[in-house]
Amino acid sequence: MSKRINDGLFELCSAHDLFKKCQYELALFEHESNHYNLFNLLVTLSHLRDWIWPLGHTRYDEATPESKAAADFHRFLHNDLDYCVVRDLSNSAKHFSSGLEMKVVKGARVGLMRCGDSLGQSYYLIANDDVRNSAYSVMRMYVEFFRSQGYET
């Protein structure tokens, strides 16, 4: 994986930089679960895959020994159900359309509440599943990937 894929956006110059932004967005969402923080988290989680392997799904055959792990991880995420939820939510937010069954539940609920949630917590549900389940799963996969590449996470 190339440490620098392009000029990026100011200090966001590499996939690892965007990964650190994912960590930042996750911390914001955990501190205050609102639709603004959720939007930023989902869009960043979704796009990090393309920063890791910017050549896209049609060019896996161009992977070098140094970039093979990035290409393989890009392919793996494409087929992961939790990543697909994150990607679909990110795309639906961008395009104002979704075939997903979405709803917001406000206030603590048995079966949704986790340790650390406030009594006034907002829960963002996809087909009655807390979106945090998919977001946390994808974040764990990114953590494992960057650790495997020698980065501190």
Summarize model confidence as the mean pLDDT.
90
Distance between the termini: 16 Å
Q: Major sheet, described briefly?
A: 3 strands, antiparallel
Main sheet: which strands, in order across? 1-2-3
Form type = globular
Structural class: mainly alpha
Rg (CA only) = 16 Å
Could you estimate the helical fraction of the residues in percent?
A: 40-55%
Contiguous runs where pLDDT drops below 50 for at least 5 residues: none
**SS field, number of helical segments:** 5
State the order of secondary-structure elements, H for helix, E for strand.
HHHHEEEH
Strands, total number: 3
Describe this structure in words.
The protein is mainly alpha-helical. It has a domain of 101 residues. The chain is 52% helix and 8% strand. The protein has five helices and three strands. A three-stranded antiparallel beta sheet has the order 1-2-3. Strand 2 and strand 3 form a beta hairpin. The chain is globular, with a radius of gyration of 16 Å. The two termini are 16 Å apart.
